[in-house]
Amino acid sequence: MNIEDLLRETLSDMAHEEQPPPPDRFFQVNRSRSRRRSLALAAAAVTVMAVGSTLVVQGLSSRAAVPKDFTAQGSDEAIVGTGRGQTTLTVREGLRLAQVMEKLSTVTGRPLVEFKRAAKDDRALGLPAYAKGALEGFAFPATYEVSPTSSPDELLAAMVTRFNRAAEDSDLVDGARHVGRTPLEILTIASIVQTESTNKRDMPKIARVIYNRLNHTPEMKLQLDSTILYGLNKFGVRASNEDLKSRSRYNTYARLGLPPGPICNPGADAIEAALKPAAGPWLYFVTTDPEKGITKFADSESEFFELVEEYDKNRRTG
Fold first, then answer.
1. Among 69, 146, 189, 309, which is least packed by CB within 10 angstroms?
2. Residue 186 lies in a domain
3. For the segment 114-141, what is each residue's pLDDT rounded down to a tens digit?
4. Which 3 state secondary structure label does DSSP give 87?
């Protein structure tokens, strides 16, 4: 039975109920049905709720406005609001899966271990085959209204469903083929772009730097601190000299090519940049003024070192 049939049957059942269904109707687990059916129904709910009902799904990259009563808990936090017996959770672009699951655990009161367990069930979550069983990169940043009865597997399945819709909107699979990459490679590039960018405007240019390095003759290493820090489960802007010695597969100073998978969960703008990089010869970029979010680009090593000097000067005087 496909999702449309599931939804049609559920709506038919609801039409014969004597009382209006509760707001969490779509996220309640029916003990008499299989686990797969309940997860498929949760996935169907995501699409329906996007047009206005109990589960709100609005991608931040699609320029959806954040409701005024939301309160940001910090630059690396989710945005949380409450109402109607539900919790509204807005997950920003660029969070790692570990951070997303920590936020979901905090908001729902469910143990973190339950989310970690659910994240490993790739078939139940509805991950595409090219995800290779890993959820990192596929927990799409958006706004979700979380019901008290929502289980970890239902919540994560909803996020994957939202990713799948974004992948269709961006024509990810065909777009990847057009630029000579796999869908997973595109999502990996998008995650790097998301992590390295200080604003949406620079994303296509940062994507171009990545492509230029990957396609350079002779081959160039990406040499990105963000990938090393991810592999070491560290946070920050710069990797230390000791970090550079890491044997992790995410050490792009030591290894050629892309890391084995995404390093965060990118939004629609980063995915679009990975599919449609800007035209240009750049091989380097430096965020010369992190406070102002200024990133500059260079196509020679000498220009790169000048940008590094500018960064060091701004850091000393900042």
1. 69
2. yes
3. 999 999 999 899 999 999 999 999 999 9
4. strand
